[in-house]
Amino acid sequence: xxxxxxxxxxxxxxxxxxxxxxxxxxxxYTADHPDATLVNADSIRTTAFSMRKSGxxxxxxxxxxxxxxxxxxxxxxxxxxxxxxxxxxxxxxxETAQAILDRSVRPAGKRFQRVSILTVxxxxxxxxxFADRIAGYFQSGEALTxxxxxxxAFRPQRGxxxxxxxxxxxxxxxxxxxxxx
Length: 181
What we know:
InterPro entries: CHP03543, DivIVA_domain. This is DivIVA domain-containing protein. It comes from Protaetiibacter intestinalis. α3 (58-104) crosses α6. The protein has six helices and four strands. The two termini are 32 Å apart. The chain has one domain (11-179). It is mainly alpha-helical. The strands form two sheets. Strands 1-2 form a two-stranded antiparallel sheet. A two-stranded antiparallel ribbon has the order 3-4. Helices cover 60% and strands 7% of the residues. It has helices spanning 15-30, 41-45, 58-104, 124-140, 146-151, 163-179; strands at 11-13, 51-53, 120-122, 156-158.
């Protein structure tokens, strides 16, 4: 057994799905041509498993996925540096970081598209507060970790920010943070 099971009476991740994903990740990591695989740091970050009784402990699997994402990101960074050269790679990372910062410092309440008042989105106040933390990280090196970004949760709000836009920014922040480690 790869991971401990969820405590009795609790749901955990579907064991077969987790094992299949881990096998795909092993093959992708050792592949001669990793561009041909479907598993990369981004896909690991967005992976989801079905919940089942007596499944794997979500805490243990999530921690393993974070380590796996870190390993894939480091390998992807090495390959990009080999392809673009260190200077080209840093220029690309700086450009992405600047785009994140530009979005993060927009006026409060106007950083992302809003959903209609009849639709639930992310809390504008919560997202703006976290965007301020992101801006602080990129502007002055304030404390923020990939774990902080991966686990941030926003309250729902009618007429709030469009979730897909916020999630895309968070994924990009994580990608940049892992790339420059």
